[in-house]
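Forwarding these from the shared drive since the link keeps breaking.
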Amino acid sequence: MISAQTQRLKYVAGDFLSSNIALFLYNCARYYFGSNRTVFHPFANLEQFLTSHNVILGQLLFPISMMIVYYLSGYYTEVFRKSRLQELVTTLASAFISALIVFFIAIINDLVSERSYSYELIILFMVISFLSVYSIRCIITNKAASNIRKGNWRFNTLVIGAGSKAVEFIERQPDKNRNIGYNIIGVIAIPGEQISASIRKPVFEMADIKQVCSEKNIKELIIIPSKHNTKVLLNTVNTLFPLNLPIKIKPDIYNILVSRVRLSDFHGEPLVDISGSNMGYSAKNIKRVSDCILSLLALVGLLPLFAFIAIRIKMESKGGIIYSQERIGLRNKPFCIYKFRTMYSNAEADGVPQLSSGDSDNRITPFGKFMRKYRIDELPQFWNVLKGDMSIVGPRPERQYYVDLIIKQAPSYALLHQVRPGITSMGMVKFGYAKNVDEMIERMKYDLIYLENMSLLNDIKIMVYTIETVFTGRGI
């Protein structure tokens, strides 16, 4: 069985090769059409044009820019079970964007009085690029689909559930999901569920799932419970998140958890992938790249402000400038969040986690109250964003102590671990800081709404509201 990384490298290499071929063919065609309109009269022949400085530079740089477009399109995220229609649409859109890039950097410099000439060149490059890239992609995709269909490539899978429904699902696989390639290694018994006597696969305990996934090289997890107990299902999902594997569930079961249905498999049994948000691959990549660029700009541009804050903190009270604390992030994994210290040292000397009670909290320093009011204390978290722990927009992360308390009362909180936590969130702009667990649960409702409606446009709206909150001093 080939690895996902090797298959991804095939697509990357194929795209890079086809992009170079497409650009070379386009330059040949561009010279031919330009010669007919006396655009390239300084060049005696095609060879002189192709070996000119600008063309050689373009041949080196444009394929790289095209590869960036392909990455941002999300094409390299899923490498085995590609939708043929989605592949066609994605390649066509990438070719169009690449054509615009080539036009505004190269073609626009061609001196020609006919506007139609520019349009012809854009269409010409788009057609050449699409046919070249799509041809190689189809070859690789068809080969992968053939290997899966013939059983040469199979994906080791665990079924979470050991009841009668799980038995029915397993028995249907050879006939229904030949194009999907599930290789069901065994089942994991859900706590409290009665194990069916008809199970013909090895049965493992939930406590051993991490070891089983490692030893059996598990690639996917499919939840098939016999009873639709929302609390048990959500606790199970929260337990599976740290494994960093695709988690799938039947749509009728997922409807019990949330009102959204997002199908991932159309070839066989329809399943919902709940291991990530409902944003498309392209939007996720753009969001991540934008996060990194904005965070880097913020960290560099705000250095003078950081220096001033550091001096004020040291002048006002003893202790460090930066305060770090363990929080729970993407896929239920812990990480250290960074803030400017707003409290006196040893604010939790008794070891029991405590939430701030706002302006009346005597643990907060005078300058700390100012920073919290304008959310200045959160600025070091741009470093968390660069590291990949957080996003600029996403549900606010909590400590494990409070996560456990929240999940006991509101198990749906576990769904927030599908995405990276954020510096700001819909919950923060609509609700603000939470002073107790009940308020955390109220704020969580806004974050669940965000999760159901994640988009780049909504992220921009939340950032605008956050800026408004900062400048109006409504942080506390």
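-- next protein --
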Amino acid sequence: MTARMNRRLYGLLAKRLDEARLDAVRDPRQARGKRWTLSALLRAVLGGLLSGARSLADVEATSARLSRPVRRLLGVPRRVSDTTLRDALCALDPSELRMPLHALVQQAVRRKALEPDTLPFGVVSLDGKHVSLPSTDDYYAQRQSRDDDSSLTGVLRTVTATLTSSAAQPIIDVTSIPAHTNEMGIFETALARLCQAFPGDTLFQLVTCDAGACSKDNAQAVRDRGLHYLLALKSSQPSLYAEAQLWLGSRSSEAADAIQEDRARGQRTVRRLYLGAATAAPEGWDHLRTVVRVQTETFDASGQLLSSDNRYLVSSLPRFRLTPKHWLLLLRRHWGVETSHQILDGAFAEDDHLWITGNPRGCLVVALLRRIAYTVLTLFRSVTQRSHERRHTPWKTLLLDLFTALLTTSDAQILGLRFRPSS
């Protein structure tokens, strides 16, 4: 079984590293004294991320133990030092790494690996993520410490775009949030870059986002591109929030458009969906068509109510475009972007192991490479794997299998393995 898995994972690495076009990433280093190609260093780092490395020192240690065919595949004929890796990553322009991520996604689209799962059209969900580090440059990392007596703290912030309509829920784009703005202010830029990378509406037709980016300008930006939006509301947006409550009225639980129950860890969660038509929308919201309320109640094993919550959302999508069950599924799928963040923090240990903490630019480069690694693995786990059981392989098990493959894959195990060149 190990030999077979080694062959599969070696094939995965060979194909996806080819698709990522790492050779096309611009190398900012001077030619003099350069002993490693940038492509080889990026492949080494990706190999480390894909196999659960927790630091550049781990990548160096792994590079010293790679099997012969894996060395040829990565272009790493000998041990590569962590300082060499760090210097190259810190010199790299982070925006250069959006291209390999887009290339991977575009190849997945061509082989129809990103078709909508259950939902009738593609949906992309945007959400912010931040990590703290003991450094700042007032550009990639926003300064958080306010006085001379406190330690220097920076916050590196990004906007993640996850294709939540796909079973794999891959990350398809990442936008850095500069220090001078926030998630609300960067939304239009993130949307523009996303649509530039994936033009037209073939990959997604709906954009979902939390209340942190809900504004009439951002909603208009989505509609200007021929797309629809689904935006969460907060009570801090009093006018629109009050209108949403008015449009839906005081409907009882019996009048819910859709109901779903889940059981986990001895608790029962009931979600009720209420749909309403938007009438007399506030100025600037002429494109608003549907208002949504989701009531979530959680009960313990004895049936006692533990918590109750109501969330309001607004959408330009007409109510009839989806069935009530699809609306409820759409709302739950939005949390796929949060799931990708949880995997980055859990299996990939991003919050606890940033790899580079003294240089925000280098930290962002590692973050982008980590998202490339996540997308490679989630496509393999949820699409390439054929059996239901394998599609639910724990992430840490998959990382361990890749670590084993890097060290033990032999020439005999990959004999006869062929690949079609990426188009």
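Residues 113-343 form a domain with the Transposase Inhibitor Protein From Tn5; Chain A, domain 1 fold (CATH 3.90.350.10). DSSP finds 13 helices and ten strands in the chain.

- D.
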